[in-house]
């Protein structure tokens, strides 16, 4: 077996963002990694990137030129009364201004465009990766938490890429230029000045670490807020019915309060860090002053040099101050990046083998061979469980809820891998074939109905994307859904989902059956497909299903015996074990669990 | 409808903090002004060889004090502003949530969860950023600006020269007026695109199983990709105007410099002003550049966040559909009968009524069964009883009181409603069951679980009642979820209980046990059961058959069976299997 089962360590899906994914600690992503990854994405836009960098360099140069022009005016033009040159200078500054404006515009636009592209890729990668992860991943993780990663954390990175990176680059450029120039003027003073730098670095390191962990707390609390919101807004009707508005508001308040506290903690760190850096700057200045004055008094340095030096020193302060501001964004981005990487580094447990075969069209002979399965470590659901579904026959599973029926369906579609044992279809182990070829041949209609925002036709077409409108309508007809669909003013083009028409449970179910009918799979699993339907619709659908099932392998899961009496074989499940099996009549004669269920549902005395 | 003004309200409450922060900004800038002065004196002394080592120490100490003072006040001022910014975020989010809990059905059917989430996550943050960062930057920039202009005015430069030089800067407000709305509109598009993406992501994380079942991951990726592409598109559109705007303001600064150089230069050469004045003028104009750039940024941010602010204000000024009357009453529903008279209801005016002329009365302590096809109006009727949608005046009465005259709290706290979907919150099972009153002791919770026939399942879980449920209680099966949700209704022990098809996913044996338990437990209390299956309602005191919004039959189980009609037909279909089976095997 290529992928040994990695046990899911927690049964508590809501156990907090720290227990992410499989619980393995993701490697802490360093700032270096972050920039490296951004760069790999940005590399495809290398011409743009080079363009932006050139713009920035040109801006720095032009900004240097403008004061020079002023100086030239003062030093030469005015004393020499050069009227014609004055106009020239005016034109020069004007030209520089135009160029500066254009360059500024170009550099911000270019940078934003690169940033947006990088983010576009990152967000799509992240989302695509999530889509490839197992169902168990989504069992373990809260939707709100995942949402906050795709939205909030990526947006934080965007801010850094779009605005701070250019600033960082510009400052680095200015800083180096000035520092080199200063070294050239007087290396001794410069070294004195640089004496405060190790302290700045140390401060940055100490604070950087704390800031990042604080930001991490912030982002986790954002996930908490978003998760709570997502959960309560989905259940809002219930909250109202139970007049729990106050209670939920209170709980929400607690979470946003936590978020606020975490943010204020960050602000405190910032409020301490930035002034410390500023202060170290002033300290450097004082050192230069004392030392420079001492040198001047010993006549080793001219006063003019010191004055010039101090002027440059002030220039140097700006990049440093900027840098300390940007550190904040960088650390925040690093924390966000870490959270994104946690998802990206989570590997799907259910992966195809390297040279997985494509499952050819099957007859549908499904065998469970001594399967052990548990969702979590401490509660085994199936133990040495064996089951055989004959090709082309209808097999039914009955049993009280929680007896493992749905799990069996999920195992066939390989949403989860069993810990032990093998499941085969027509002799192919489902671990040896591609997931797509497996799932394409299985149609599941379940008790959880999900429709997406979009039109009715689009929702049905998920079953088979290439199908024509006629096929979609035929499927709806077969699922007994055509009637209500056509009663809507827009028919098949009616919008459903959160912003569209509200459908009743039965109507939704019929759409999901139409979807499965359209898919035309070899193997059909009906998991309580008709539980929420009223009797008449159920009756109609039963007829439609009977047609659909012909010649296919079918597994029907139900607790309503009326739906399964015609099954070729019925298995009665209790707590993950098969207690009885056989055809309907055989089971009745056994007078065991099945006939007990049957009696309850259809008491003979009731028919008056 | 009065439009809400969250920002104005907030400023009204927090202006002292803003004032203090402004003062500190001022102090810190004032201190900063001394810095060049001290440096100047120092260099003067140095040049005149008047420096002694003690003076050097004094000067450097003085500089350090200036440094500390500047840094300290600036730090505190910034901290204060960022602190209130967070406070703003907190207050607005809390307010939004409270507002959401007040909104009704119509609101939630129009707005998806993802879209609402986006308000909390994207819009509130955008406004907060502009009021905290924006304020700090504006405060600093304004002071620098004022300082530069004041010094300019005090420096004997002719006013007409100053005016001519500064004139290009006066164009800034015009640009703001012209470009502002464009930036705002495009920001709105960005915010809406963000909302759309949040919505898509939320929907698809919830529906991941379907995606996997149909192996349509690629389609979902494309769908999501499209929303991300929209964001990029709108962001770039926004960047194009906003960076134009941001480049324009320093450009005007440069134009001001051109005027100063050319006009000022001419005046200097013609000796109308001194060289000193000319130097000073160019210096001051350059001093203006930095704050101008900052102000440009701030205006930009403010325009963007105004889009968010408008979205938030718009959301908050939407009013709840269901409003309590001013003199709404509290009422004990224990002995109240329910009477529905001539109830006709349509979701929208002019559309087909969902319920037509319903007349019904349920005596206190009775059990009513409602059966009917999907779409026959059963759930709508329940929503009207709960007043999650507003019934017509006088149509629904508890005792003699119109449901619209009751306070929502008194009505809903005395009704136990169990919906079909078995929605569970991601918290512990215990909290889910004891949702109506979190303080209930464990044995009460256990008793309710026993009545709902879910106790055994819970007892088998590793943490039993303290087991946390995932996103939507996915670790429980459909039937288990329904029963847990039922236990939540049972524990409320309310005078009136409504089961809206709450046992559909439960097997026949368990269903019977549940109904038996309910009958026993709710002997003297009113219970309304909606079901598709006759087995769930046949013991009711009265059964009503709804079809297409009209009551077509009513009576007890036995009476209804004797009538020709929908009830008997349903019964026959549901029993068909049984007869078929008896025909072939038993007799």
From TrEMBL, chain A:
Residues 50-332 form the ABC transmembrane type-1 domain. Pfam families: ABC_membrane, ABC_tran. One of its GO terms (molecular function) is ATP binding. Its EC number is 3.6.3.-. It is a multi-pass membrane protein. Gene3D superfamilies: ABC transporter type 1, transmembrane domain, P-loop containing nucleotide triphosphate hydrolases. Keywords: ATP-binding, Cell membrane, Hydrolase, Membrane, Nucleotide-binding, Transmembrane, Transmembrane helix, Transport. InterPro entries: AAA+_ATPase, ABC1_TM_dom, ABC1_TM_sf, ABC_transporter-like_ATP-bd, ABC_transporter-like_CS, P-loop_NTPase, Type_1_exporter. Residues 1-22 are annotated as: Disordered. It is an enzyme of class 3 (hydrolase). Residues 366-600 form the ABC transporter domain. It comes from the Bacteria. GO terms for cellular component: plasma membrane. The chain crosses the membrane at residues 46-66, 86-107, 168-185, 191-208, 276-295. It is found in: Cell membrane. SUPFAM superfamilies: ABC transporter transmembrane region, P-loop containing nucleoside triphosphate hydrolases. This is Subfamily B ATP-binding cassette protein MsbA.
UniProtKB/TrEMBL annotation, chain B:
The chain crosses the membrane at residues 15-35, 55-84, 137-154, 160-179, 244-267. This is ATP-binding cassette subfamily B protein. The keyword DNA-binding does not apply. It is a multi-pass membrane protein. Keywords: ATP-binding, Cell membrane, Membrane, Nucleotide-binding, Transmembrane, Transmembrane helix, Transport. One of its GO terms (molecular function) is ABC-type oligopeptide transporter activity. GO terms for cellular component: plasma membrane. Gene3D superfamilies: ABC transporter type 1, transmembrane domain, P-loop containing nucleotide triphosphate hydrolases. Residues 338-573 form the ABC transporter domain. The keyword Signal does not apply. It is found in: Cell membrane. Residues 19-304 form the ABC transmembrane type-1 domain. Pfam families: ABC_membrane, ABC_tran.
